Automatic annotation (TrEMBL):
A motif (GXSXG) lies at residues 179-183. The lineage of its organism: Bacteria, Pseudomonadati, Pseudomonadota, Gammaproteobacteria, Pseudomonadales. The keyword Hydrolase applies. The active site is at S181, D325. It comes from Marinobacter daqiaonensis. The keyword Hydrolase applies. This is Patatin-like phospholipase.
Length: 495
């Protein structure tokens, strides 16, 4: 082994053993320097970017900002942002160096942020804070928001806590979060807590209730038709997230929770439950339904707050319908999220055990990865076609619902714009349907954090504009409120 190879092996070992993002990044920089990644970042030339145009737009934004030419700055900012948005989202830009992409991308995004903050904070005689606030809100609506999507995964889904903790500590946790099955439990645990409570949750994850899964006796399995105690699971959900409705959780945390549930009737459609579509539905019933894996747990009737006479009772929601595991029909409901919440970027945390063996190669490079992708695509197409033929042949059979569920699982998409994946480790599959020990919990959280750190630069860059919009709108809200308070005393004297 050469000296360089030995150093690389040592650094890779240190990278795998890093206990924080800061440690990981320091080692990643050394590896990038060793492999030429830092030199690649400094070089502007690449076929993936229109370098000369980006540099021209940086120059114009800086010039107009320094000279106070607001109208010109607004125009070039809009033009450059939408002109380069597609190429800056290219995942290949983040496939060379561990610590980030071309430095010119960072320079461009920094200038976009400076320009947006300048337009937000610059006082204009003829434009009130309220008017500017509305302008920024309109622009944000056009641009869109990022969303975090947490897949199912049984015990593997605990790793979502590590993913979200890593994002939270870097200020990158989106306000829109969706979850299905185990991902629904984690998503609800986050969206039912305000910032102070969430900080406590991430600092002391071992305090969470962990006793969710309990096998029934063989006699009860035979009599009930499922194998695990749903009451135990419901208790686990209630202890960890409470019993708020979607609207109550949004008002408490400011985060928008979305939970996928699948129908038991073939004529019914899967639903994405949230504060907009189902504000009074109780989150614990939605999570319980999203976790109802057929054969493992029974279907669930959703519950909702009864607001008809100002009461606080729970009543059945759509009482003639029952719902099951959200990951069967909508593990990652990207289209519905985009329509409801104007989502322009999806960050996917994927931990489904049946998906992991088939998607890891999608993010690898080289001819071997290409061969795996081709083989996987062929197998996927054949399975989907076979299930399509089977469900048509058995259209009136009692097994039709099972075929429908298998077809839905085989044909849905399991990746998004930015993908964080639980590593495929066959030795861990024995833990899929077991309650985690404290050691297991720490392991799953560490896996989640370590899977997130290599994606951090991409997430930070590709959500920067959305985050800047959010910060500017918050400042303008405060300024508009202050302006209203200054006007009100004058109005009262006039009256």
């Amino acid at each position: 082994m050469t000296g360089k190879a030995k150093i690389r092996k040592q650094l890779e070992q240190q990278l795998a053993e890093a206990l924080s993002f800061e440690q990981w990044y320091e080692v990643a920089q050394k590896l990038d320097e060793l492999d030429g990644g830092l030199r690649w970042r400094e070089e502007g030339e690449t076929r993936m970017l229109h370098e000369s145009l980006i540099r021209e737009h940086i120059r114009l934004m800086r010039q107009y900002r320094e000279r106070g030419r607001i109208a010109d700055l607004t125009q070039v900012l809009q033009e450059s942002l939408y002109r380069h948005l597609g190429e800056l989202s290219n995942p290949d830009l983040y496939g060379v160096a561990r610590t980030g992409t071309k430095l010119i991308v960072s320079e461009f995004l920094d200038e976009v942020r400076y320009s947006m903050n300048y337009l937000c904070d610059q006082r204009e005689p003829d434009v009130s804070a309220e008017q500017k606030l509305q302008m920024f809100r309109d622009a944000e609506k056009v641009f869109g928001h990022p969303a975090l999507m947490l897949s199912g995964g049984a015990a593997f889904g605990i790793y979502h806590v590590g993913v979200t903790r890593a994002l939270w500590r870097r200020g990158l946790l989106p306000e829109v979060i969706a979850g299905s099955s185990m991902g629904a439990i984690v998503a609800a645990s986050i969206c039912c807590r305000n910032d102070a409570e969430l900080q406590e949750f991430f600092e002391h994850p071992g305090r969470a209730h962990r006793d969710a899964l309990h096998w029934l006796s063989p006699a009860d399995m035979w009599r009930k038709g499922y194998v695990m105690d749903q009451d135990r699971l419901h208790h686990h959900i209630r202890v960890n997230i409470g019993n708020r409705s979607f609207r109550e959780a949004y008002e408490h945390s400011g985060r928008t929770l979305n939970i996928s549930v699948s129908p038991t009737r073939t004529r019914q459609k899967p639903r994405l439950l949230n504060e907009l579509a189902s504000p009074n539905v109780t989150i614990d019933s939605a999570v319980l339904a999203s976790c109802a894996v057929p054969g493992i747990f029974p279907p669930v009737t959703l519950k909702a707050r009864d607001r008809s006479e100002g009461g606080d009772d729970e009543i059945p929601y759509m009482p003639t319908e029952t719902w099951i595991d959200g990951s069967l029909h909508g593990d990652l409901p990207q289209m519905r999220l985009a329509r409801l919440h104007n989502v322009n970027k999806t960050i996917v945390s994927q931990a489904n055990p049946h998906v992991l063996p088939f998607i890891g190669h999608r993010f690898e490079q080289g001819y071997r990865a290409s061969l795996k992708q081709a083989a996987s695509s062929i197998v996927h197409a054949h399975v989907a076609s076979l299930l399509e033929l089977t469900r048509n042949t058995w259209s009136s059979s009692v097994v039709r619902p099972l075929i429908e569920q298998a077809h839905a699982m085989a044909t849905q998409t399991y990746i998004g714009d930015i993908n964080i994946q639980f590593p495929f480790q066959p030795s861990l599959y024995r833990k899929v349907l077991s309650n985690p020990t404290l050691e297991d919990l720490d392991m799953f959280l560490r896996i989640g954090e370590q899977a997130t750190w290599p994606k951090m630069a991409m997430i930070e860059d590709q959500t920067l504009v959305s985050r800047t919009f959010r910060e500017c709108i918050q400042r303008l809200k405060e300024r508009a409120g202050a302006e209203r308070q200054q006007v009100e005393p004058i109005d009262s004297r006039q009256v």
